[in-house]
Amino acid sequence: MEYVIEMLNITKEFGNFRANDNITLQLAKGEIHALLGENGAGKSTLMNVLFGLYQPEEGEIRVNGKKVNISNPNVANDLGIGMVHQHFMLVENLTVTENIILGSEPKKMGVVNIKDAAKKVAEISKLYGLNVDPYAKIEDISVGMQQRVEILKTLYRGANILIFDEPTASLTPQEIQELIGIMKKLITEGKSIILITHKLQEIMDVSDRVTVIRKGQGIGTVVTSETNPEELATLMVGRQVTFKTEKGPANPKEEVLHVEDLVVTDNRGIEKVKGLNLSVRRGEIVGLAGIDGNGQTELIEAIAGLRKVKSGKITINSKDITGKKPRQITESGLGHIPQDRHKHGLVLDFSVGYNSALQEYYHEPYSKNGIMDYGIISEKAKSIIEEYDVRTQGEHELARALSGGNQQKLIIGREVSRDPDFLIAALPTRGLDVGAIEFIHKRLIEQRDNGKAVFLISFELDEVMNVSDRIAVIHDGQIVDTVIPSETTEQELGLLMAGHSTKETSMKEGVDRDVK
Amino acid sequence: MSNRVVNLLVPIISIILGLLVGAIVMLFSGYDPVSGYIALWNGIFGDSYAIGETIRQISPYILAGLAVAFAFRSGLFNIGVEGQLMVGWFTAVYVGAAFELPMIIHLPITLLAAALAGALWGLVPGILKATLKVHEVIVTIMMNYVALHVVNALIKTVSGGSYKTDKIQPTASLRSDFLSNLTDYSTLHYGIFVALAMVAVMWFLLEKTKTGFELKAVGFNENASQYAGMNVKKNIILSMVISGAFAGLAGAMEGLGTFGSMTTQGGFTGIGFDGIAVALLGANTPLGVIFGASLFGSLKYGANNMPNAANIPLEIVSIVVALIIFFVASGYIIRVGLQRLNKKKEAK
């Protein structure tokens, strides 16, 4: 096989820590090569080595068979290697063309020649079916479009090898499909692609071969058509992973959360929750399914006391908590894994230890007569780190330094260890790899089995289907229906989420049948 | 080079660089940098009198630096230390002069009154920030002007139209014959101990107490603090109040220690504004503030000797002092430079 890129036996160390340990990756011409690994397995480090941001301690890199020394990103650019970053590096209030030429502006007598550049951008865009308007401002175009601008940028600079770093993380399902189309188009035009991801389905859909790394070590390369998601997951995590979450039947008891005719507005004063009714009982997991923006955020924030309730009533364990302060609600038995872990869940510049005490610091034994006991807080942090498998250098490390999955495990550890009667888990697995997702689902089910009420909010249908005992479907600020996972399909859920009631769907099916 | 060596080298190189550039400025202006720096050195450390005066100058800088640093640690930028210091100064002098009490009661009450006055001046921007989200920088700047003119008016009122208040009672004075005798009759007073005690207070508050935990959390992330059930508004107000109290005490240093009275002010004292630089030089930590205040206090006082002993005009002296401080503040540049140097060595 002809390889455009060969990274042979790469080892990269940071102090005593081996981020990459003898990893080999060979990219054939015209292939989409997936690089698979858990959060923090060393994928980004390896790509930063290829891109010239890090120098490896051992190993060599060959481009088109020739040994090269990529000492900085400019060298990588000259070799035709381009990176499409996960977090876009675009200037919001400049146009597409201005962003693309930024740093290497074509000049005509000392004046930037935008016209010719825009023409070239339009040509490339047309060639690869990107459909980008060269004169559009970045702030006016969608996230999916912005990603295409990033792709255009690498192509404009003559990249033949494109590295995509977790490209689907912030895209809608529709945009993901379009991206896959673009990637395939790029291949037919003779480009080669390295795709960094931990989403197995994407790999199965789009890649030709997969290189798996685990805890910094190269596990091997497999041909995608000869493998399956289960095998890939096992290779990645190093043990068998169950996709179908195992759980016994639910044993629901008395009601813990009761929401009645709740109305909540967003920051602009527009009603987002419109007379919503909901009930969650001990010993069951209720999933909230819905398309983003249908009132989920406002509902959770209202329950947690972070947002004002306009009208209606919320009770936990029959105690009215409507309009109460967050701490009073927490003390009434609420545990809350918030939707945005950086905004609400953690103080990123606090240590892991401080964060582990965020909900309980104010009472004994964590503080006494106004004086903190950081010794006891450290002990608590250590036990959460141990029990919830938070990978960190210790309780004194800043929360900011943890990977997303480990930040999430820290929050879950903090909330679950308080043993709350009612647990809200809002998007608890967003951005996490299969190993971490499995772990978190197990913990939620464990809480249920201990007789607690769990309320799971998720945009992933299979998560809602797998984990919940009942599914409440939210649309336009109201619960339009409640269904049992075993008695429904993703299609039916999808229709409900889009605002069709079950009556309508069954009627429609009836009509279809009649027509046939 | 290990990290520890770099940490030690950075401030030393910074000061040397500042001195060098300062020397160039003096040379170009036609003055002798060697005699200039000898005069500066003597002005700071030359004899026990100079040392006493230098330490006396450092005390208000420590407190002003603490005031800025404390607010900063809870995410607030207190530019109003200047005004809080002035009302603290006036209040200290007024309470110190108006009552006759035994020292053991009078001095603490006077200090407390100064702290309360500064706290009150911090309370206003605190409340406005917490309830109406008015930016504290704007309010504190404006409160500085209010303080300047209110204090001047009050001085005239209490002195019956004069430009100067009465002298304080000896029972409210921080003056110390012992310290004064020790340093060849300098004006060194007990204020330095008050300042150092407040360094300990700030450290204890931030690092040991529940309040400190909350203040820091609110400073880093208001949303997460609210989620954790903290009263964000209360903490914002409290932070400004404590910050203002430190600033008020800085004013008491001048009122009860250095001057023993207050004259109407033509403009700001500058100590409060220098406090911002002191806090930033000290990375907003209590111990760092001592370092920053020592640098500021020494240079400010020592530089007074340069016009007399080396015939260098005050304007040039100000430039030289500013340059030294500038280079210390830009320690980051030197740190990066050192790391580059290191890398090159390793590559070879």
- CATH architecture field of the largest domain in chain A: 3-Layer(aba) Sandwich
Gross morphology of chain B is globular
Estimate percent helicity of chain B: over 70%
Number of helices of chain B: 16
Strand line-up in the sheet with most strands of chain A? 6-9-10-3-11-12
- Give the radius of gyration of chain A: 25 Å
- How many distinct domains of chain B? 1
- Weakly predicted, low-confidence segments of chain B: none
The CATH class assignment of the largest domain in chain A is: Alpha Beta
Instruction: Give the termini distance of chain B in whole angstroms.
Output: 15 Å
Estimate the mean pLDDT confidence of chain A.
88
Could you walk me through the main structural features you see in this protein, from its secondary elements to its overall organization?
With 516 residues, chain A is of the alpha/beta class. Residues 505-516 of chain A have low confidence and may be disordered. Chain B has one domain (59-304): ABC transporter involved in vitamin B12 uptake, BtuC. Chain B has 348 residues and is mainly α. Helices cover 78% and strands 0% of the residues of chain B. Chain B: This is Putative ABC transporter permease protein YufP. Chain B: It holds the Pfam family BPD_transp_2. Chain B: The chain crosses the membrane at residues 7-28, 101-124, 136-155, 188-206, 236-253, 316-338. Chain B: One of its GO terms (molecular function) is transmembrane transporter activity. Chain B: InterPro entries: ABC_transp_permease.
